[in-house]
Specification:
By secondary structure, this protein is α/β, with parallel strands linked by helices. It has 11 helices and 15 strands. Strands 3, 4, 5, 6, 7, 14 and 15 form a 7-stranded mixed beta sheet that branches. Helix 4 crosses helix 5 and helix 7 runs parallel beside helix 8. It is globular, with a radius of gyration of 20 Å. The termini are close together.
């Protein structure tokens, strides 16, 4: 099969290699998937670059997310999966060196979900880790129907899925953004309010928006892209008994939080790392996301597409930091 791989870390064009690799065979409870599209996440580019420490394996086929068609199954896997269009996540995670940057991948059937016919493979490849992380963070404290949810970075890959899923689940959604274009994107995804954090006082604006809401001002839950960087705005934006679920902390990994305030206001803080999330939470996320994309048009944003043989350009597009949506590598 055709694939891309690297055996040392560094710039994409220097270390990514393209050529032939052995086609895998499905093991017990696994499916062999003909990959049509592979999603490139910032973590994929970071591991290749070396930002996450030394290489975990001598040779890595990158990328964790993707979409394709099941061509074969191993012992214990249901034969009905053969021929089914699927989306998947964690292809190159949790003990797996060979990800979706190839024409084929073998995966435990636990990691795959049906892809509706009306959703393209490229769109399906944008789900995976971004949508799964959004779901786990959004529902970390339970249902959000009838509640007010703040999504920081509401136009980003994870944030935009959080906005859409929160709207779908019946929440009032407030998103923070950094420009008018991103505000329009957040609103198109279902945000009821968009706050430009570069120009407005986020906490004051949220108190103004929610002043007359039932239960008083503030939000019930925050899905947060930068715990340390946003804490000065998110903490005062919470109402009593509120919660924050954060999936990154670029602005300060060692942020200080006043324990007394958390206790007095009965606030909850939770970090979210998808591979370490409870299995039942991940299974619920897969089921809900599949239902969500099956029940109407959704904004599954493909930032750009690149051929498998030029995966380096996909990694460079991610590293530029100006993408809107997910960069996708096409292998069929």
């Amino acid at each position: 099969m055709r694939a891309v791989w690297y055996d040392k870390q560094g710039p994409a064009r220097e270390v990514l290699r393209f050529g032939e690799r052995p086609t895998p065979s499905p093991g017990r409870n696994e499916a062999l998937i003909r990959v049509h599209a592979s999603g490139v996440n910032p973590s994929d580019a970071g591991m290749r670059r070396g930002g996450g420490g030394q290489m975990a394996y001598p040779l890595i086929v990158p990328h964790s997310d993707g979409a394709g068609v099941v061509e074969a199954v191993g012992p214990g896997a249901p034969p009905r999966l053969i021929g089914q269009r699927v989306w998947f996540y964690n292809g190159q995670r949790n003990g797996r060196a060979f990800g979706s940057g190839a024409e084929y991948i073998e995966l435990d059937v636990d990691l795959i979900s049906p892809l509706p016919d009306e959703v393209s493979f490229a769109e399906g490849a944008t789900l995976g880790i971004p949508a799964m992380t959004a779901h786990v963070a959004l529902f970390r404290q339970g249902p959000v129907q009838g509640k007010v949810v703040l999504v920081t970075g509401g136009a980003g890959a994870v944030g935009h899925y959080a906005v859409q899923l929160a709207h779908w689940a019946g929440a009032t959604v407030i998103a923070t953004v950094s420009s008018q274009d991103k505000a329009e994107r957040a609103r198109a995804g279902g945000a009821d309010f968009a706050i430009d954090y570069r120009r407005e006082d986020v906490a004051a604006r949220i108190r103004e928006i929610t002043r007359d809401f039932a239960g008083g001002p503030g939000v019930h839950h925050v899905v947060d892209v930068d715990f340390g960087g946003n804490l000065a705005a998110t903490l005062p934006s919470l109402r009593n008994d509120g919660s924050i679920a954060f999936y990154a902390s670029r602005g300060g990994a060692a942020s200080e939080v006043a324990g007394g305030e958390l206790m007095r206001r009965n606030l909850s803080l939770t970090g979210v790392l998808l591979p370490n999330s409870p299995h039942e939470a991940r299974r619920r996320a897969q089921a809900d996301i599949t239902q969500w994309i099956s029940t109407g048009p959704r904004m599954l944003s493909v930032a750009s597409t690149h051929p498998l043989e030029d995966a380096a350009s996909a990694h460079e597009a991610v590293e530029r930091g100006d993408k809107v949506g997910t960069v996708v590598v096409l292998s069929a």
